[in-house]
Structure prediction request, 227 residues.
Amino acid sequence: GDSVTQMEGPVTLSEEAFLTINCTYTATGYPSLFWYVQYPGEGLQLLLKATKADDKGSNKGFEATYRKETTSFHLEKGSVQVSDSAVYFCALVTNDYKLSFGAGTTVTVRA
Amino acid sequence: GAGVSQSPRYKVAKRGQDVALRCDPISGHVSLFWYQQALGQGPEFLTYFQNEAQLDKSGLPSDRFFAERPEGSVSTLKIQRTQQEDSAVYLCASSHRDRGGTDTQYFGPGTRLTVL
Prediction:
């Protein structure tokens, strides 16, 4: 079945550091890929998505590129802020509607 | 506009009690989903509604779990005879269109259920 594996946390960074969270997937067919973010005390929010190979999703300074050849969708941000502290989830959906999530990566950014 | 809302936000139940969790989706959204998120894990799919029709309940863990959406808007997830392993955050999500894998699912804040 479909599955997502993402980098284990927690990840602790200093402000303005570079952030990468690795995500790889296994899926039948051609999935759409997503990054969701959960800020403390809030619900899951869509951060970015990509629907086909080589697409790049971007939002709030975050980027991820859909790499079919490596079945990956790594999340990157060049300069993190304290406000980026959150739990980040990589997810996919194939031809149906069920989102399959990774286990989440907790990111803490220190001033 | 208003997002997805869920109530209660927190629920403590004694083992064996029945509980009912409510979800108010975004107005006009056709699709509604329930997910279960165990501590330290990602959400896992429970069930899917298209309007009032429950098209997929393959993720419900046992026959103690029941979901309904009788008028195609508000949905209720009911858990009968709760067990400790039911302790989790229950998330509701809605999306505008029917099916459509690329359609964004908007999540509510969740209900944290603790079974003692």
